[in-house]
């Protein structure tokens, strides 16, 4: 009966006797007592391979004092989990979009960056997307001209395609329809399509959509686009010479930020933009006179569009020249002091609630009574409303109130010296809170602090159109 | 005394100068006899190993009577991966024999490495995120993906394995086993997809590198998995753990042998590659018996054949073994043209080439045979054989003929030009001067060469400067890593990892971080960037991939073989490294060695002594006793040695038994040393 030493992991069992008349299974049972490793899990290295349970000891020829090595653990066997993880590579295209965290880019079809950037900005509005998806393909309303209908359908299809893909999409269909509807975008120079003003594209597209997305049922929810983007202005038109005064109301889709010598900040520009002088025939004087028009906002939209009036017609060079002046804009815009008195009073309560909540978030001390009030309402940044049917959104909206505070969600920038040249790029905030720069077919992640650096003052990209989203509060 | 000095001068000149065969052998022989005469046994051993002359090695051991000196000799043998049969003539004392055997089988390598790691205080495991350092990347930090990407998880697996190589602990693979519920164990493993699981399980082997006992215990549970990929990984892991270690119980053979004949080809590959890694350079007869029949079996798929050829090439590296050569030649002749066109088919000629690694004209007969092969592979065979046979010789004529091949214009899409570029680097890496010339002329290839040549140049540069981040090469590779051709960019990225392997080089780390944000959208290139990042931090900066050691005098054949295999695999990055054979990256294990100087006392216990570490100076031909290092700093052992650095003892209290201070060095107390030496 030879005695061997057995090495197991870092341990050595010095004197283990082998009964050579018994099969090796007996020896394994001996080791089971020592190590706690069940015999079927034991692997014992002997000359020529592993020790088999039915091997013949004599054939193996174990020598006295030989060192054997045993491998094996009593650990639980690794089991394959029933449900393996899901990998990005396995997902279908449309789900990869979710994983990537942003939607696709748009190919440039030859100086179409003005159109691509406009589309990317508007594509970031979930409510617009849901309104478009409800737009029926057939059944054009009788009062709508066929090209508007086609453009709306093309927009809907393109937005759908952007959502489904994570690889760049070609906006060919949309572009053709756009040129059909607005022939000015089909201008050519030396056989190439010319660069166009993105603001014009934006305005025209917005106008078309506002026409086509009117609900057939006039009772509820009359105009989706107007509800989302329309800004109602009340103005007082005042003539100094005759002291005539007349009120006016109008609805616009964008506020203009005028840039002059004293404007350094978006807010100042907006104030300027709401005051204007115009010349018209005064009925009292019987001749044309200078009127002063002062406007203020009477109703706030869900999405506030701000246009920086950076381009002006330069007669001597016969082109739209650009003002490079640096105009800062904030990530959070408060338009309270641009509002009319009646709107201001409506905004009071929601604003108070919002302030309390923010205070609570920052951990400021407050009266207990106020605390109770603040517990119930909740801020809605509105990220969860996308994709819902418009009626559902409308129901919800009744409980949500404007606060006059807006968050920046999209910036359309221009780089270059005139509107009809240079390069347009869209910078869009994603639902995840990350910013993506859509440079035609390339979506590039960006940091939030870099977004406010697009304020001009050099030859870098500078903001041309900004889109802000209302911060709502529940009352 | 003067005589000794003169002899040293002569010998060092002999060692350094470039001579064509057969004069080089003559000169080495003279050097050997001089060393023997002056009882400079360690230097004599280096020369004998350079000649790859086993009888000389044996003669040395017989001549040397000092048991302590024999220990040192055994350490050198272990570093070179050579073993010697310790019979009675070599050593009489049974107890001594056991000690020497243990040194020679590298059994204590893991222990020494961990001692070094503890001394430098880098035992704490690192996760891939610690390496990526995303917070340092400005701007476009990669968009937070909510879903796991199989490719990025696989990259993380490799990074984790490379970084924690040999430490026995990490933050992905070994952690869950400690938690009480066994169900969660292997959770990271199953975050890898299909064949990715093989690499993940195999990474356990790299994490436990050289620590056979603990490693096998960890790997055991994966053998019982019902997933074939996991078993493949476990088999590979056994091979990796045993890489460079010889064990009397032969656990690798015992565990792997049964799996070689299984039906599933991925399991077969795992077992075969495992055997190749575990027994590289051992010429183990049993493995040949086991693997040779596979080569000539026509029913076996080409992928299995390819790995079999490589494994046999590794086991019989530089042996010129006729049986193995015959089998591989037969396999090459009998396979159909379409099979030889597969990307992995390049491993067959490579396996053949490894048999003749460094054996120069011994390869000629086989090259003649390969000329009769199928057109598809014949040229590749010739180039692979020639470049392997003259690897590390600096043979100018062969360099010229390889450059001649690069100058041809190919019409039929042949692949051998890439191999020629790598072959050029292999031959030219012999000495510093040739290396610089090679870097220069590779620049010309880059400018004037065709696309298939440009794709191989980054790999060649990576080989020339492996674990030796030369600034000019770094800049070239950094430029190429932005190349418009994605193959060039990928090869350059991996090569950036290779030249920085195990150095923690901050400049390369920064370059790779920038690349990771530059290529954040390109999954394939990002994967290469990640692997390169893992390589740069190989073993947290304690390891090297350089196949040269002992003052750049000796070339470890199995280390060189490992590098060659990987570089040839990199010639077709997309179908091998980026495809489902990514575990070829583990061939690098063959070249992994700690870049340390560890001093041990007469009982082989680590002892800390002050040493000066500085840039090596070429002292050949200088009179007197010139300084061998410059710009040195004094540290106490164990210390890290970078490429081109040399160490010398800064104390007179001890005498080193080795002429070259690298790896393990035995110290003995200086009998003439007086403690009050300085005060007097």
TrEMBL record, chain A:
Signal peptide span: none
GO BP, sorted A to Z: negative regulation of ERAD pathway; proteasome-mediated ubiquitin-dependent protein catabolic process; protein deubiquitination
The entry's keywords: Hydrolase, Protease, Thiol protease, Ubl conjugation pathway
Region described as Disordered: 358-390
Keyword Protease: yes
GO MF terms held by the record: cysteine-type deubiquitinase activity; proteasome binding
Enzyme class: hydrolase
Ubiquitin-like domain: residues covered: 2-71
Classification via CDD domains: Peptidase_C19A, Ubl_USP14_like
Pfam families on file: ubiquitin, UCH
Record carries keyword Transmembrane helix: no
EC number: 3.4.19.12
Residues in USP domain copies: 104-471
Reaction(s) the record says it catalyses: Thiol-dependent hydrolysis of ester, thioester, amide, peptide and isopeptide bonds formed by the C-terminal Gly of ubiquitin (a 76-residue protein attached to proteins as an intracellular targeting signal)
Function: Recognizes and hydrolyzes the peptide bond at the C-terminal Gly of ubiquitin. Involved in the processing of poly-ubiquitin precursors as well as that of ubiquitinated proteins.
Self-association and partners: Interacts with calmodulin (CaM).
Family under the similarity heading: Belongs to the peptidase C19 family.
UniProt name for this protein: Ubiquitin carboxyl-terminal hydrolase
Protein's organism: Amborella trichopoda
From TrEMBL, chain B:
GO-annotated biological processes: proteasome-mediated ubiquitin-dependent protein catabolic process
RPN1 N-terminal domain residues: 17-136
Gene3D superfamilies cross-referenced by the UniProt entry: Leucine-rich Repeat Variant
Any one of the GO CC terms: nucleus
UniProt KW keywords: Proteasome, Repeat, Ubl conjugation
Keyword check for Membrane: no
Superkingdom per UniProt: Eukaryota
UniProt domain 26S proteasome non-ATPase regulatory subunit RPN1 C-terminal: residue ranges: 620-673
Signal peptide, first to last residue: none
Pfam families xref list: PC_rep (PF01851), RPN1_C (PF18051), RPN1_RPN2_N (PF17781)
Family: Belongs to the proteasome subunit S2 family.
The protein, known as: 26S proteasome non-ATPase regulatory subunit 2 homolog
Source species of the chain: Amborella trichopoda
Lineage start: Eukaryota, Viridiplantae, Streptophyta, Embryophyta, Tracheophyta
């Amino acid at each position: 009966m030879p005695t061997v030493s057995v090495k197991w992991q870092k341990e050595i069992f010095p004197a283990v006797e082998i009964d050579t008349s018994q099969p090796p299974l007996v020896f394994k049972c001996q080791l089971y007592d020592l190590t706690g490793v069940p015999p079927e899990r034991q692997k014992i290295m002997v000359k020529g391979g592993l020790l088999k349970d039915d091997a013949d000891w004599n054939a193996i020829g174990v020598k006295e004092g030989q060192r054997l090595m045993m491998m094996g653990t009593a650990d639980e066997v690794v089991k394959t989990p029933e449900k393996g993880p899901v990998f990005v590579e396995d997902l279908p295209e449309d789900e990869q979009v979710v994983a990537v965290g942003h939607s696709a880019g748009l190919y440039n079809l030859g100086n179409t960056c003005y159109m691509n950037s406009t589309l990317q900005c508007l594509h970031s509005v979930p409510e617009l997307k849901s309104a478009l998806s409800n737009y029926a393909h057939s059944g054009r309303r009788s009062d709508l001209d066929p090209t508007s209908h086609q453009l709306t359908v093309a927009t809907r299809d393109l937005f759908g395609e952007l959502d489904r893909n994570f690889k760049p999409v070609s906006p060919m269909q949309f572009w053709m329809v756009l040129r059909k509807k607005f022939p000015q975008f089909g201008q050519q120079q030396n056989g190439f399509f010319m660069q166009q003003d993105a603001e014009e594209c934006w305005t025209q597209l917005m106008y078309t959509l506002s026409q086509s997305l009117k609900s057939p049922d006039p009772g509820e929810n009359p105009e989706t686009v107007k509800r989302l983007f329309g800004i109602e202005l009340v103005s007082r038109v005042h003539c100094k010479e005759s002291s005539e005064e007349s009120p006016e109301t109008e609805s616009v889709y964008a506020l203009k930020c005028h840039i002059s010598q004293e404007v350094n900040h978006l807010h100042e520009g907006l104030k300027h933009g709401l005051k204007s002088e115009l010349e018209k025939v005064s009925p009292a004087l019987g001749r044309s006179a200078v009127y002063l028009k002062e406007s203020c906002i009477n109703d706030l939209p869900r999405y506030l569009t701000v246009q920086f009036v950076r381009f002006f017609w330069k007669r001597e060079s016969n082109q739209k020249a650009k003002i490079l002046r640096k105009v800062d804009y904030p990530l959070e815009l408060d338009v309270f002091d641009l509002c009319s008195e009646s709107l201001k009073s409506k905004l009071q309560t929601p604003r108070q609630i919002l302030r309390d909540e923010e205070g609570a978030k920052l951990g400021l001390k407050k009266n207990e009574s106020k605390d109770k009030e603040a517990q119930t309402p909740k801020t809605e940044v509105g990220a969860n409303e996308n994709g819902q049917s418009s009626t559902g959104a409308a129901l919800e909206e009744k409980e949500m109130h404007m606060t006059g505070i807006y968050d920046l969600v999209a910036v359309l920038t221009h780089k270059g010296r005139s509107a009809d040249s240079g390069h347009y790029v869209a910078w869009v905030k994603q639902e995840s809170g990350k910013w993506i720069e859509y440079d035609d077919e390339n979506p590039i992640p960006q940091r939030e602090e870099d977004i406010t650096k697009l304020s001009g003052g050099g030859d870098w990209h500078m903001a041309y159109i900004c889109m802000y989203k209302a911060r709502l509060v529940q009352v | 005394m003067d005589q000794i000095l003169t002899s040293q001068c002569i010998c060092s000149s002999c060692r350094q100068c470039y001579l064509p065969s057969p004069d080089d052998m003559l000169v080495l022989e003279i050097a050997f006899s001089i060393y023997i005469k002056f009882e400079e046994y360690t230097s004599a051993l280096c020369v004998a190993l350079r000649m790859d002359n086993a009888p000389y090695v044996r003669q040395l051991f017989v001549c040397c009577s000092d048991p302590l000196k024999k220990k040192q000799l055994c350490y050198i043998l272990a570093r070179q991966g050579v073993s010697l049969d310790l019979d009675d003539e070599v050593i009489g004392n049974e107890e001594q024999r056991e000690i020497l055997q243990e040194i020679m089988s590298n059994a204590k390598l893991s222990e020494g490495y961990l001692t070094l790691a503890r001394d430098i205080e880098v035992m704490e495991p690192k996760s891939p995120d610690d390496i990526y350092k995303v917070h340092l990347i400005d701007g476009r930090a990669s968009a937070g993906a909510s879903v796991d990407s199989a490719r990025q998880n696989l990259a993380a697996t490799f990074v984790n394995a490379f970084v924690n190589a040999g430490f026995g602990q990490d933050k992905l693979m070994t952690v869950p086993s400690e938690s009480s519920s066994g169900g969660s164990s292997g959770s990271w493993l199953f975050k890898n997809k299909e064949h990715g699981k093989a690499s993940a399980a195999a990474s356990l082997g790299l994490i436990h590198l050289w620590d056979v006992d603990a490693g096998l215990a960890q790997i055991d549970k994966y053998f019982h998995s019902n997933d074939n990929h996991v078993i493949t990984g476990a088999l590979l892991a056994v091979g990796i753990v045993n890489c460079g270690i010889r064990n009397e119980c032969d656990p690798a053979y015992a565990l792997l042998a049964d799996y070689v004949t299984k039906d599933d080809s991925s399991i077969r590959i795992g077992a075969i590659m495992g055997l190749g890694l575990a027994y590289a350079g051992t010429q183990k007869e049993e493995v040949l018996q086991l693997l040779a029949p596979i080569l000539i079996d026509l029913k076996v798929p080409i992928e299995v054949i390819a790995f079999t050829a490589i494994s046999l090439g590794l086991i019989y590296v530089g042996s010129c073994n006729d049986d193995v050569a015959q089998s591989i030649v037969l396999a090459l002749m009998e396979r159909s043209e379409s099979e030889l066109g597969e990307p992995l088919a390049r491993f067959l000629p490579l396996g053949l080439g490894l048999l003749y690694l460094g054996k120069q004209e011994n390869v000629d007969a086989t090259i003649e045979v390969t000329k009769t092969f199928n057109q598809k592979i014949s040229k590749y065979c010739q180039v692979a054989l020639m470049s392997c046979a003259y690897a590390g010789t600096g043979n100018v004529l062969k360099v010229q003929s390889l450059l001649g091949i690069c100058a041809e214009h190919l019409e039929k899409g042949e692949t051998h030009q890439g191999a020629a570029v790598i072959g050029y680097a292999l031959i030219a890496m012999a000495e510093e001067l040739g290396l610089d010339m090679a870097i220069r002329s590779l620049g010309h290839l880059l400018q004037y060469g065709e696309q298939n040549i440009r794709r191989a140049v980054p790999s060649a540069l990576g080989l020339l400067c492996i674990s030796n981040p030369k600034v000019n090469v770094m800049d070239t590779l950094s430029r190429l890593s932005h190349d418009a051709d994605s193959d060039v960019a990928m090869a350059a990225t991996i090569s950036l990892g290779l030249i920085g392997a195990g150095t923690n080089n901050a400049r390369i780390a920064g370059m790779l971080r920038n690349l990771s944000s530059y290529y954040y959208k390109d999954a394939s290139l990002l994967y290469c960037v990640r692997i390169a990042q893992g390589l740069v931090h190989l073993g947290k900066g304690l390891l090297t991939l350089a196949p040269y050691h002992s003052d750049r005098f000796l070339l470890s054949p199995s280390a060189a073989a490992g590098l060659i295999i990987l570089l040839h695999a990199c010639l077709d990055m997309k179908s091998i490294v980026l495809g489902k054979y990514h575990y070829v990256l583990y061939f690098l294990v063959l070249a992994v060695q700690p870049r340390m100087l560890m001093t041990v006392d007469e009982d082989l216990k680590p002892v800390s002594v002050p040493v000066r570490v500085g840039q090596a100076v070429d002292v050949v031909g200088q009179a007197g006793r010139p300084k061998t290092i410059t710009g040195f700093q004094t540290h106490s052992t164990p210390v890290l040695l970078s490429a081109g650095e040399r160490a010398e003892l800064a104390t007179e209290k001890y005498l080193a038994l080795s002429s070259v201070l690298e790896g393990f060095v035995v110290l003995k107390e200086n009998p003439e040393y007086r403690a009050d030496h300085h005060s007097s």
